[in-house]
Amino acid sequence: MRLSNYFLPVSKEAPADASIVSHQLMLRTGMIRQNGAGIYSWLPLGLRVLKRIEQIVREEMDRSGAIEMLMPTLQQADLWRESGRYEAYGKEMLRIKDRHDREMLYGPTNEELITDVFRAYVKSYKQLPLNLYHQQWKFRDEVRPRFGVMRGREFLMKDAYSFDLTEEGARAAYRKMFCAYLNAFDRMGLTAIPMRADTGPIGGDLSHEFIILADTGESAVFCDRELLALGAPGLDLDFNSDLVPVVEQRTRYYAATEEMHDAAAFDALPDERRVSARGIEVGHIFYFGTKYSAPMNAVVQGPDGQMVPVQMGSYGIGVSRLVGGIIEASHDENGIIWPDAVAPFPVGIINMRAGDAACEEACVSLYTQFAKAGIEALYDDTDDRAGAKFARMDLIGLPWQIVVGPKGLEKGVVELKRRKTGEKIEVSAEEAVRRITG
Ligand code: ATP
Ligand code: MG
Q: How far is the CA of 152 from the centre of ligand 2 (A)?
C-alpha cells in the first residue's frame, strides 16, 4: 500500500477525553473514529488489526474442534422470554420494535439463539459433542462506556457454545476452550492469566476469566508469579488427549480478581511470588449446565433412550477489546509497538527522497519482493519531512521499518529498524527482505 493512496488520518494531539494510552493512540493513529458514546467506526488501519486478531481466534477455535457459523445481531424478544432473561437482563439490553410492533433486541450475547438453533436439529447424543462459535457484533448499553474500544457499547465478540450429553463431557469441552484461549492470547503476544471467576447461582468451579496485566486495567488482580512463567500449552497440543493435567498445572496457583480475592491465601505466598496488579478481562469461559437447555427444552436422547436436557457452556473473547488491550501491553513514548502476529502491516518502507528516481526504484523493488513473499508493506512515498515520516512510522508501530535514502543507496545499503528494540542496522536491500520474510 502506498501511503499517498491510503487513508491514514494521523493526528498530533489526542482528544482530551481519551484518558488511557490505548484510546489516545487508536485515535491519533486513525484506527477508529467515535460515532456516538461507545460506538466506533473502524478505519482502515484499525480494521486490519481487528481482522488479524479475529483470524488468530478463528484458527485456535478451529484447532480445538469448534465450528464457525454466524448468527444475526438482531434477535426476537420471545426467545429471551423462554429463558426468562428478557425481563431479567435490564437496561444493558437495547430493545427495538419492528414495523409490525414485534419486540426485538440487539443481541448482547447468544445463549438463547444458539439453543434455538441446536434444538431444531440435534436430537441424539450421537450428534454430540458439538461446539459452535461465531464472531459477531454485540450491543450492551453500558452505564459507563469508556476507554475507547475497551468498554464500548457496540463491540465484537467471539462467542462459542458447547453441547454435551453429560457433565463430564461438558468439563472436557471446557478444558479444550481453556487451552485454546491460552494459545490464542499467546499468539497475540499476550500473557493471559486464567483466574477463577464467580459462577453465580449455578456454583461449581467451572468459570475462568482470562486477564492481561496493564496499569489501566479496570480490576485489581492478584496472582502467583510462577503461574505467569508457565506460558501457553502450545500449538502442538493434541486436543483429543487428556487435558486434565494441562489445565490443573495452570489452575493450582493462586490467581484471583478483586471479587474472588482471598487475602489470607495470597499473603501466605512468599513475598517474591506475590503479584498484585491491575488487569483487563479479555475472555471468559463458563460452564452452566442446563440453565438454558432445561427451560428452552433443548433435549437429546441418551444411549438409554431417555431424553435429557443438554449440558452447555459458553466461551467469550473480547475481540475488539483486545485491540486496545494489546496496545496497553505494548507501546512506548513514541507510539504503538505491534506484536508481529497482529501488526496491520509487517513492515513500513520510508522513502527519504520522494521524487528521486533511484530511491523510488529501490523502494518499489523492496515492495515487490515483499509482495512476492506474501507480505503487504506500507510504503511511505509522501514528500513529508523526514522527521515527520519517522515519527509517524514509530507512532503506528509497524514491527519493521526500512529507510531508503540516496546516501545509503550509493553504498548499496538501506537502514533496517526493529520498532520494538529501536535497533538500527545498515544492510543490503536483499538482506533486509530476508530478515523480515525469513
Ligand atoms: P465485563 O465484566 O468487562 O463487563 P462481562 O463479564 O460482561 O465483561 P462477558 O459477558 O463474559 O463479559 O463477555 C465476554 C467478553 O467480551 C469479555 O471477557 C470482554 O473481553 C468482552 N466484553 C464484554 N463487555 C464488553 C464491552 N462493553 N466492550 C468491549 N468488550 C467487552
Ligand atoms: Mg459486562
A: 10
The closest residue, in CA terms, to atom 19 on ligand 1 is 318
Where, residue-wise, is CATH 3.30.930.10 in the chain?
3-336
Q: Kindly give the distance from the C-alpha atom of residue 149 to the centroid of ligand 2, in angstroms, as a whole number.
A: 13
DSSP-derived 3-state class of residue 44: helix
Q: Where are the beta strands (DSSP E) in 67-152?
A: 67-68, 74-76, 94-97, 103-106, 130-139
H/E stretch holding 436: helix 429-437
**Centre of ligand 1 from the C-alpha of residue 318, in Å:** 6
pLDDT digit string (tens) for 369-428?
Answer: 999 999 999 999 999 999 999 999 999 999 999 999 999 999 999 999 999 999 999 999
Q: Which of 20, 177, 281 is the best mutation target for the ligand 1 pocket, counting ligand atoms within 8 Å of the beta carbon and taking the most?
A: 281
- Closest listed residue to residue 156, CA positions, set 78, 40, 24: 40
Superfamily of domain 3-336: Bira Bifunctional Protein; Domain 2 (3.30.930.10)
Residue nearest (by alpha carbon) to ligand 1 atom 5: 284
> Residue of the nearest CA to atom 13 in ligand 1?
316
Contact 244, 175 (CB under 8 A): yes
Ligand 1: residues within 6 Å at CB? 109, 140, 142, 151-152, 155, 157, 281-284, 316, 318, 320-321
| Residue 405, pLDDT score | 97
What's the pLDDT score for residue 198?
Answer: 82
For the whole model, what pTM was predicted?
0.97
Q: Please list the residue range(s) of the chain that carry CATH number 3.40.50.800.
A: 345-437
**Which atom belonging to ligand 1 lies closest to the Cα atom of 145?**
27
> Could you give the C-alpha distances from 311 to 65, 66, 69, 178, 430, in angstroms and in order?
17, 16, 20, 17, 56
pLDDT digits over 213-244, tens only?
A: 998 898 999 999 999 999 999 999 999 999 99
pLDDT digits (tens, 9 = 90+) for 126-166: 999 999 999 999 999 999 999 999 999 999 999 999 999 99
- The CATH code of domain 345-437 reads 3.40.50.800
| pLDDT tens track for 22-42 | 999 999 999 999 999 999 999
Q: What is the pLDDT of residue 438?
A: 85
Q: Whose CA is nearest to atom 21 of ligand 1?
A: 318
For residue 164, the cross-strand partners are: 311
Q: What pLDDT is stored for residue 202 in this prediction?
A: 60
